[in-house]
Amino acid sequence: MATPVFEKTKGLTDKQFHYCPGCTHGIIHRLVAEVLEELGVTGETIGVAPVGCSVLAYDYFNCDMHEAAHGRAPAVATGIKRVRPDNTVFTYQGDGDLAAIGTAEIVHVALRAEKITTIFVNNAIYGMTGGQMAPTTLIGQKATTSPYGRSEADTGKPLRVCEMLATIDGAVFVERVSVHDVPHIRKAKKAIKKAFEVQLRGEGFALVEVLSTCPTNWGITPVDSLAWLKDNMLPYFPLGNFRTPEEGK
Amino acid sequence: MATERIIMAGFGGQGVMSMGQLLTYAGMIENKQVSWLPAYGPEMRGGTANCSVIVSDSLVGSPIITQDATCAIVMNLPSMLKFEQNLVPGGKLIINTSLVDREPSRDDIEVYKLPANAIADQVGNPRVANMVMLGAYLALTGLVSTDSVVEAFKKVYGAGKEHFIPMNQQALAEGAKAVLEVQ
Amino acid sequence: MSKVLMKGNEAIGAAAIKAGCKAFFGYPITPQNEIPEYMSREMAKSGGVFVQAESEVAAINMVYGAAGAGVRVMTSSSSPGIALKQEGITYIAGAELPCVIVDVSRGGPGLGSIQPSQGDYFIATRGGGNGDYRHIALAPASIQEAVDLVTEAFDIADYYRNPVFVLADGMIGQMMEPVEFRDMPSRELPEKTWATDGTKNSRKPNIINSLALDPAVLEEHNIKLDKKYQQMEKNEVRVEVFNMEEAEVVLTAYGTTARVAKNAIELLEAEGIKAGLIRPITLWPFPHQAFREIPGTAKAILTVEMSMGQMIDDVKIANEGRLPVHFYGRSGGMCPEPQAIVDKVKEILGGVK
Fold this sequence. Notes:
The complex is a heterotrimer.
Chain A: H1 25-39, E1 45-49, H2 57-60, E2 64-67, H3 73-83, E3 88-94, H4 95-101, H5 103-111, E4 117-122, H6 152-155, H7 161-165, E5 171-178, H8 182-200, E6 205-211, H9 215-218, H10 222-236, E7 240-243, H11 245-248
Parallel strand pairs in A: 1-2, 1-3, 3-4, 4-6, 5-6
Antiparallel strand pairs in A: 5-7
Chain B: E1 3-11, H1 16-29, E2 33-38, H2 42-46, E3 48-56, E4 69-74, H3 77-83, E5 87-96, E6 110-114, H4 116-123, H5 129-141, H6 146-157, H7 165-182
Parallel strand pairs in B: 1-4, 4-5, 5-6
Antiparallel strand pairs in B: 1-3, 2-3
Helix pairs in contact in B: 1-6, 4-5, 4-7, 5-7, 6-7
Chain C: E1 4-7, H1 8-18, E2 23-26, H2 34-45, E3 49-52, H3 56-68, E4 73-77, H4 79-94, E5 99-105, H5 121-125, E6 136-138, H6 143-160, E7 163-169, H7 170-174, E8 176-179, E9 207-208, H8 215-235, E10 239-242, E11 249-252, H9 255-270, E12 275-280, E13 282-284, H10 288-292, E14 300-305, H11 311-319, E15 325-329, H12 338-352
Parallel strand pairs in C: 2-3, 2-4, 4-5, 5-7, 6-7, 11-12, 11-14, 14-15
Antiparallel strand pairs in C: 1-8, 6-13, 10-12
C-alpha cells in the first residue's frame, strides 16, 4: 500500500487556480489555507476576497467567503467579525485594493483594532486590469499607466504599508515577508500563522504583507521575476516584523 | 379648541425647546393630536432656538407653522421681530418684557406682556422663565391643565428630576397670575 | 402599549431594535444624527453592535458584511451620505442580502442644505448604484408610520433577501409626535442557510458574491432578480387614497408634503372645491393602480413635492396620458404651504374649465 508523502491542504477547494504561470498568489493561498487547517479553524473561518487578481479567491478557500467591493474588504470583515465575534475572519487583498482605493478602510480597521487578519499581497502593479501603476510600483518601473517608468515628480514614492500601519496602536501584528524562494516561503508561513494566532487570542488587528511577483505584467519570465523581486523590491520594502503584541506591552 | 399652532422662540438656553416638548407631551396625555417641530441646524449653534407646537382635536396635518400661528411665545427681541409676522389676525403674542423693550409692530393681534426673567428670579431660579411663559399661555388658553404639564415633566425628565417639580409648578402659577393681572 | 412622545430619528432607532436589528453601522451627518446617537446608546443594552465607521462607504460595506453573516442590520444617513452608500447598496442587492437603509433626506445637489427636502426620490426609486437592481422604497408621513414601516422593513428585507430603503425627509427625522410600538404583521421567513457563519466542516462553503464573469450566468442571475422584483411590484404596493370621491382635482404627494396637501384639501373644501389625494407609501413599487382608479369627475392631477419635480415622472407614467399632470414644488429646504397649493389648484381649475 502506497503511503502518501504529500497531501493538499483541506483549507483549499479542488477548484483549479486561474492565476498566470509563475504568479505567486497560488503559493500564498496555500500558505493561508495550511495555516487555517493547522490551527483547526477552517470550519469557523470567514474569508473576504478583494477586487483584483485574487477576486476569485472565494472559489479557492474551503471556508465561508464574502466577495467585497474594491478596497472595502476591511469594512466588510468588520461587519462580519462584529456580529460573529467567535469566528475567524480574514481579508486577502492586493496592493491596488488595499494601498490605493482602500486606504481609509485599512487604516481604520487597524485603529479600531478589529480582531481580523489581513493578508496583503504586494506585487507592485495592478494585475487584473492589465498592468497599470500601483501605489507600490517602484520608481522607474514601467507600467501601462507609467509607460516611461514611474516618476517620483509626478506620482510620489511607493507607499510602504507596513511602516504606515505600524504607527497605529491597534495594529498589533505587522510583518513583511516574501515568497521569492523556499526559505522565505517558510518564514512567510510562520508570519501568517502568527497573524491568525493574534486574532484567535483576541489581541487586535494583524497584517502580513507578502511581496509577490507578476511575471505577466512585469513582462519577464517567472524565474526572472523571483530575481527581480529580490533585487528591486527588497531594498525598498525591507522584510521583517514591524509590530508584535509583546512589543506593545 | 380646534387647532392651536404655537411658535416658541428665544435664544439657546432659555428652555424654549423643552417648553415646547412639555406642552406637546401634556397635549398627548390629554388625548389630543400633537406635533413638535424644531428649527434645527446652524441657527441651533448660533444661539437662537425655536419650535412649532401643534395641539388639535383632529389629526395634525402639516407640522409646519407658516402664516397661521395662533400664538407666538417670544422670549427675546429677535424672536419677536421674526415671529410676530407669523400670527393670524387676532393671534396671541406673549412677550417676555425682561428681554424685549420694544413694542410689536402689528395692531391686529392680542399682545400680552410679562417680565418672565424677573418673575423666575423671584421664584428662585432664572432657568424657569420658560415655565413662567408657559404658565401665562395656559392661563390665557386653557389648552391643557397644569396637572398634565407636571405629568409630562415626570415623563420627559424622569424620577431623578422630580424634586424640581414644585419650583416649576410655582413658575407656571406665577406666570398665570402675572398675565391675568395685567389684562 | 401606551403612547410615547418621540423624535422621529430616535423612534426609527427604537423600531429597528424592536424588530430585532442586531447591528448598526453609521457615520454622522445632519439631520439624521439622532439615529446613530440613539443606536450607540441602546444597542449595547440590547446585545447589539454599533460601529461609527470612517465613512458612509465603509458603513454600508460593514452592513454588507454583517448582512452576509446573517444578522438583521441597518444603516442610516442623509442625502450626500446616501449617495456615497450607493456602491454598497448595489453589491448588497446583487448578492441578495437583506438590510434596511434609512435616508433622512436634506436639500441638494452637492452639499446642499440640512433642511428637509424630497430631492432623493430618484436615488430612492432608481438607485444610484450600477446595474439592474431594485429595492423597495418606503416613505413614511408621520413618526408612527415611520415606526411601523421600519419594523416591517426588516421582515420585507428578509422575505425577499433584498435591501429595503426608507425615505424620511428631515422633518420626519426631527419632529416629535406620539408613537406606539405595536406588533406588525410578521411574515413566514426562510432560514438563512446561505449566511457566512462558518462551515463547521459539515457543509460546503457559503459564498456571498455579486460577481459572475460568465455572461450567461449573469444574465440568468439578472432574470432571477427581475422575477423577484416583479413579485415585489405585485405584492408590496402601499398607498393611501384620501377624499377621492367626486374629486375635481387629484393631488399626489408623499411624506411630509402629503400632510401639507391634506391641509390644502381642507382649505379647498371650505371653498367648495373637491380635491383628493393619492399618497404613495411605497415609492417603488409605485402605486399605478390608484391612478387607474381616479374617478371620472377629476379634471387634473397636481403633483406636490419638496423638489423641483422627481416623482412627477412616475405620476406621468401611472397616469398613462389620461389627465393633464401639473406640478407645484418648493426646494432647497423650503416647504410647500397649504395656501400656495390651494392657489395652484384654483389656477389649474381656471385653466381646464
